[in-house]
Amino acid sequence: DNDDNNDNNDDLYSSDEEADASSPRSPVRATTSESAGLAPLPSNFSLMTPSGQALLSRSDDIYNVIHAHLKERQQEQTALLAEGDKTSAPTVQLQLKQSEEQSLVKEAHYLNHVLEASGKRHGTLMSDLPPLPMADTISASEVEAFGRELNDADILAAEERLNEMCIAVAILENQKEKAAAGLSPDEKRPKTKREIMIEAMEKMLRAHQMHKQAVEEAMQARLMDQVLGGKKKRSKVKKPTKKALRKVLSKVDETTPVFAVACTYKSLQAKDKYFLSFGMAEELKVLSVEDAPRGLWVARSAQQELGYVYTHDLMIAADYVSSKMKN
């Protein structure tokens, strides 16, 4: 097979928006590497506009609370896996006052409205939000003004924060259901369908953050090249070999479970036989496959075609998450 001869030379998509982190892009939100896999604020905050910074600062108080909780959940999940426990759900509780819970819902709605007004968002919500209380109102003119002023970095930052808020809302709903059923929050027990979907949402969030960090590092390298006049060579991002891609795909069969249903927000034509081509707003099933290369998912199309897609080219379908949680 001659596939391995040109492993790192051919572009995998014939598109100006190809997904490789080394390709030129507009400024995006940077993320900080943390042991929990979640990032609070951009490490390079200057990539964002003053309007983007002001938008995030609105929700800083409630965000800091839920972000700390998500870190605790990830640490507990890591500890469970280290003990060989892959079935138990984290028991750490998200403790919010009623005013904080109301603030979470209101700020999540606000971010969602601003992203809609911008016309630049990359995908839909991870899950549905609870209705906005009647006493809370959102100024349409203020939202539209924010939306017009946001750049690409602002959009990515707002989307990431909104995704964390959606996860927090799902966690709160899960805690209420367990309390209503008389289940002890500290009891180790197998994950429910809702808890499995929360875990899936957390994994997708971390995958997007990892990609954005890679993009930021590539941007910083290009800036360094400009500053040094091209005297310092930039190290290339190592791509997976064709042999490695084939090896992972060979593990997939009809019994491979579906990790999540996702939708695309752009169209790309693959130039590599191991990658899927897809159109705008196309539904793909992301499969649960171990050892997939960083930044890639194995997916199956509606036509039953199998192949890789870049993680940042997909958004988990909100209706899929909602239906799984309701079931």
| Strand content range | 5-15%
Name the structural class. Answer: alpha+beta
Outline the low-pLDDT stretches: 4-46
What oligomeric state do the depicted chains represent? Answer: single chain
Q: What composes the largest sheet?
A: 5 strands, antiparallel
Order of helices and strands: HHHHHHHEEEEEH
Number of strands: 5
**Distance N terminus to C terminus?**
46 Å
- What is the overall silhouette? globular
Mean pLDDT: 75
Rg computed from alpha carbons, rounded to a whole number of angstroms: 21 Å
The total count of helices amounts to 8
Main sheet: strand order:
4-3-2-1-5
Share of helical residues: 40-55%
